[in-house]
Automatic annotation (TrEMBL):
Lineage of origin: Bacteria, Bacillati, Actinomycetota, Actinomycetes, Mycobacteriales
Gene name in the database record: ccr
Single GO MF descriptor: crotonyl-CoA reductase activity
InterPro entries recorded: ADH-like_C, ADH-like_N, Crot_CoA_red, ER, GroES-like_sf, NAD(P)-bd_dom_sf, Zinc-ADH_QOR/CCCR
The species this protein was found in: Gordonia effusa NBRC 100432
UniProt-listed Gene3D superfamilies: Medium-chain alcohol dehydrogenases, catalytic domain (3.90.180.10)
Keywords: NADP
Pfam families: ADH_N (PF08240), ADH_zinc_N (PF00107)
Protein name: Crotonyl-CoA reductase
Keyword NAD tagged: no
Occurrences of domain Enoyl reductase (ER) (ranges): 47-412
Amino acid sequence: MTDPLAAAALAGESADTLLSLDVPGEYLAAHIKAEDVAGFRTEPDKDVRKTIHLGEVPMPELAPDEVLVAVMASSINFNTVWSAMFEPVSTFDMLNRFARTGGYTTRHRLPYQVIGSDASGVIVRTGAGVRNWSVGDHVTVSPVVVDDQSFAAHDDAMRDPAMTAWGYETNFGGLAHYTVVRASQILPKPAHLTWEEAACINLCGGTAYRMLVSDNGARIKQGDLVLIWGVTGGLGAFAAQLVRNGGGIPIGVVSSDEKVALAKRLGCEVVINRRELDLGSGDRTPEETAAAAKRLGRAIRAELGEDPHIAFDYTGKDTFGLSVIVVRRGGTVITCGSSSGYRHDYDNRYLWMNLKRILGSHAMNLHEAHEMLRLFELGRIAPPLSVVHPLSEVAEAAYAVQTNQHVGKVGVLGIAPHEGLGVTDTAKRQLLGEDFLSPLRLDHNLAGVG
């Protein structure tokens, strides 16, 4: 059962109606508990289903620069898994550090953390200092929390030393019926997308945009060959579409024959099954890494006649040494993470003697996130949603990501009772078509769009 305010937001009631209803004192949320940290360190399997709890938590006070969003849908990211594993560090340590900045941030120091770094929904309250957003607006949430009074943030918000990830390094995340976020995190929801589609695009989509398209990243151009590791994952699925949309040639790497067709649906001209080339893992010897990279390079040249300009690498230990070798002379390896391990071994001779570059990238600033969303509005890219769970199955959804049983993005409904809701531009949706909008859907049996 949803409360009257949530029900009114779901029904599309007016701002006056939403403002006339009370904000509940508690709300349903997926959360982790500080009391679980010590005991979980000795757990051999680190199963996140043991630490993700679903239950009522107190509604936080709203700061003047914040909005309260009734969450219609959210999605699972790897940082949700890291939160629930308390690795590589406990997020409660990060909450305490964030709270030390004072003021309203002290609210985040709690014995529990509401997790989740993606959301779409309806604004139901605004703080006194919020100007550009109103109650009733349909929005999505950027996961980037910055200090708008920081000097560095006005050059590039990601350079703000105090930048934090909402729902990972802060509290009150998106896997819940409500979330509290700063107005500087809010973006308009694409009107032709459902709630669950809109909830799966900001974190991965914005990250991939900054890595590939932005002046802060690799700045792909027409004709660039881009090697994309894990192309059917959330980040990889966005990367393939962005490369193709920008006139580049996406080269997808997958781990099974079943994922080849999915990679091609995302626009990959060449798809390589890493198991067929015996690319192995990050535990190779230097000689084994060089030999694997040469096999990969030969496979790419056999298809396209040249080496990649860019390697899009977020998997880390297993792939980074290969990326450094396989990109062409003067090429770029861009990285935003290390899902297979943070310690990277690579042969530096291939880097310095061939004038290559390694670029680090993290999340996205609000302008980059807005530019990425504009591509959705233009109908150039599609949400890589593969499956959707109710909030009651949030722990199972996170476990699927933890154990790599997923492709693309795994959605989680919040207040929305079923899939297919939230579309307010049906004409655009019909023009684009369900096949385009569902490149990774494991089924097309939506509960009805509208």
